[in-house]
Amino acid sequence: MHHKFLLPLLTLGLCATTARGQQADTVIVPLAETSKIIFTIEDRRDIEILRHYDFQELFSDIFRRLDTTYVSNENEVARTEEAKRPEESEAVVQKRDHKERDYEIGRARQSFYVDLGLNNYMAGDQFPSGTDLHAVRPWGSWYIAGNSVHRTRLGRHAYVELGLGVSWYSFKFQEDNVTLSKEQEGVVFAVDTREVDFIKSKLSATFINASLVPVLDFGRNVVKGKGDGFRFGIGPYVGYRISSKTKLVYEIDDDRTREKNRDNFHLNNLRYGLRMQLGVRTTDIFVNYDLNDLFATGKGPKLNAVSFGFIL
User: Fold this and answer.
1) 125 three-state secondary structure
2) Helix, strand or coil, per DSSP, at residue 4
3) Which residues lie below 8 Å from residue 287, measured CB to CB, with a gap of 6+?
4) Is the entire prediction scored with pTM above 0.85?
5) What distance in Å separates the CA atoms of residue 291 and residue 280, rounded to the nearest whole number?
6) 200 and 192 in contact (C-beta within 8 Å)?
7) What's the rounded Cα separation, in Å, for the pair 205 and 163?
8) 140-177 pLDDT per residue, tens
9) How far does Cα 299 stand from its chain's mean position?
């Protein structure tokens, strides 16, 4: 309220004082929303003095004192809060950060994934040529594996994945009439010359496997291994053969025949190699490369199995 309206209000309040006699009375003048001015009048003769009072100077002095008092109080409150903060909030922050680190580091999750891809093998630094009887067709030489993966967090972006599972190799030969037999001196690849309609010929093997793959994951949903960022891992694996067989399929007089032969075919019982994983968002791919030969030393061609495909 502007000071020029104060005197009329004050005079109106003092009139009420006159009606009640010479007792002290109080005039309350509201200002703004939460402030007010209170006048206590004990002698009616003071009214004439107030009529000629310099209220502008009075209010200027009041505002100066209010500003000084308000700022001083604010500074005092701020110093009090600042004095309390180091010993209380710092301890709370340190405790919270320690709990968060304990919660994240070492946190693990169990998941089940399926590898679905293709098989081939390398003869030195290249795939076997079409003239080699052991050459395989990329399409139809399937690799399927089921893995239970235990994923543990080691750091902000670092994880390690321990996988246990079963895999099925399938090598479909380039020529449908190729046969594979086991002899004492080694495996023999040959051509079946029978007058039949050959459909396919393949070698398959089943392994139980274990892998240990360190992974860098820059996504946010990182524990599950299917986050929204880029991830990369490479690590060793080892497998043990539990079965193997060949299958030759052909038709004669519109009658389909399947010849199966179960044997070890001088395959190495142990396989070991390196596994690479690469993922972005919800898509992950893998590459497995066997560092040891598919067949026992001196019992077959020197071939290193390789598999690649998607992690589902």
Assistant:
1) coil
2) helix
3) 275, 276, 306, 307, 308
4) no
5) 27
6) no
7) 19
8) 999 999 999 999 999 989 999 999 999 999 999 999 99
9) 46
